[in-house]
Amino acid sequence: MTDKSLTLGDAFDACQDIELRFAKIYARLSLLLGGVDDRVARFWETMSTQEWQHYVLIEFGRGLCSTAFDLDMQIHDLPASGSISQIKDDLTKHEQRVAEMNVNLSDGFKITIEIEQSEADQLFMYLAKMTEKAIYQNNQTFLLNRLNRIQKEMQHHHETVIEAAKRLSNDPEIIRSAVSLSHH
Ligand SMILES: [Fe+2]
Ligand SMILES: [Fe+2]
User: Fold this and answer.
1) How far is the CA of 139 from the centre of ligand 1 (A)?
2) Containing structural domain, residue 92
3) Model-level pTM greater than 0.90?
């Protein structure tokens, strides 16, 4: 899939695939690292649940966009289009890493921060914008509240990482890179 031939439907497919794989990585980290500390288990459980919510939002957006636009239309204004394959390559690397048993708390935070710094967010935000356009085009502005609520939850998602790093990690480098997510 090159960005030249990328369709709106492809962008939805890519985004949903990425969100689901994030959800699975966080579920795995909860299992691997949560054994001794319930707060650690709950942090990654929450992250996993939030990724699943992103998947659900994108499903909601796909439905609205399929009514308003043609999902086969090519898109050229996607900021992260060139990086979808990069995001997926990084994901494969993270999946291989969490498949091993010897992942410690610092590794878990590093993987999480790398995921949250990735350009997957740009793809997500692009589709949220398209969904907003579709809502106006379909004259369904009563749905805007739902979209806004989900976008607020997205910001809260990064705050979840920052709070957990401050509470659970004593590595200043990890805390610093987590805090940088607030500007992401
Ligand atoms: Fe996500
Ligand atoms: Fe995320």
Assistant:
1) 27
2) 3-183
3) yes
